[in-house]
Specification:
single chain, alpha+beta, Phosphatase 2c, domain 1, 5-stranded antiparallel sheet, 25% strand, globular, PPM-type_phosphatase-like_dom
């Protein structure tokens, strides 16, 4: 039986006034959502979508629990993001100043046998195996499109004036392209990182790999956040580190409470997530 053993940390950074990132860590899920939008709407977008995905995935955590959402991990992720999209739409209808708000979403789900990535936007998921760091997600950004089409060299990305333009997100539009759903090559002993661009815009992959390979998940998340802050902390930064472990822990049907991060820690940020199964554990916010 495979599960995650992980930790997360979120920090507002040195520039932003409030934290628009949301995160969640539990034995079956690790996710980061990075919200954007005016009228204090970024945190509402990220928390609403994160809550919907966590809620949809909660049945995975409780053996024998009646599942409101049945099906594969891909189907669970599709249902969760659809709920989150509806929540964003309702939030905009309640306050038109929120028009344009959206969020990235990067989430890893494990059902005991498989790991699946759900991703949209420019937050990222990585796997560290035998010292080799591999990016699992594809950036949905304008500069990533330019690189993929051969119009821009990778060494010019950091200097491009449109490097932060995101082409895809969860924004409340029922006709959007949805999230990428990707089965992950996962083995016990792998370590995964899910993070917002507040880390990757400031800390290179070589340094991320070095930090990711040293210490417990809790120590590593703290070190990664500290590295982003030391590099300027221009944005909110959220990191979730997950070790994939194999064990035979008995379950009693109760869901893993998990750990909430950033904007998700404030229930006021969550708009109409549906009947909630989130059992709130300790928050880890800054």
């Amino acid at each position: 039986m495979l599960r995650f053993s992980g930790a997360g940390a979120s920090h507002v950074g040195h520039v932003r006034e409030h934290n628009e990132d949301s995160g969640f860590v539990a034995a079956h899920v690790g996710l980061v959502a990075d919200g954007v939008g005016g009228a204090a709407a970024g945190e509402i977008a990220s928390a609403t979508v994160a809550a919907a995905v966590v809620d949809a995935s909660a049945a995975i955590a409780a053996a024998g629990a009646p599942a409101e959402v049945a099906g594969t991990l891909e189907e669970v992720l599709a249902v969760g993001t659809d709920r989150g999209r509806s929540g964003i739409r309702r939030a905009i209808q309640h306050d038109l100043r929120r028009l344009g708000m959206a969020t990235t979403l990067t989430v890893l789900l494990c059902d005991g046998e498989r790991v699946v990535l759900g991703h949209v936007g420019d937050s990222r998921a990585y796997r560290l195996r035998d010292g080799t760091l591999t990016q699992l997600s594809t950036d949905h950004t304008y500069v990533a499109h330019l690189v993929a089409s051969g119009q821009l060299g990778r060494d010019a990305v950091a200097r491009h004036p449109w490097r932060n333009v995101v082409l895809r997100s969860v924004d409340g539009d029922p006709a959007d392209q949805g999230v990428d759903l990707v089965p992950v090559d996962a083995l016990a002993g792998d370590r995964f990182l899910v993070c917002s661009d507040g880390l990757t815009d400031l800390v290179g992959d070589e340094d991320i790999a070095a930090l990711l390979g040293a210490g417990t998940p809790a120590a590593v998340t703290a070190a990664l956040v500290d590295a982003a802050l030391a590099a300027g902390g221009r944005d909110n930064v959220t990191c979730v580190v997950l070790d994939l472990v194999a064990d035979h822990l008995a379950t009693d049907g109760r869901a893993d409470p998990g750990t909430v991060l950033g904007a998700l820690a404030d229930p006021a940020n969550i708009v109409d997530p549906g009947p909630s199964r989130i059992v709130r554990g300790p928050a880890a916010t800054a």
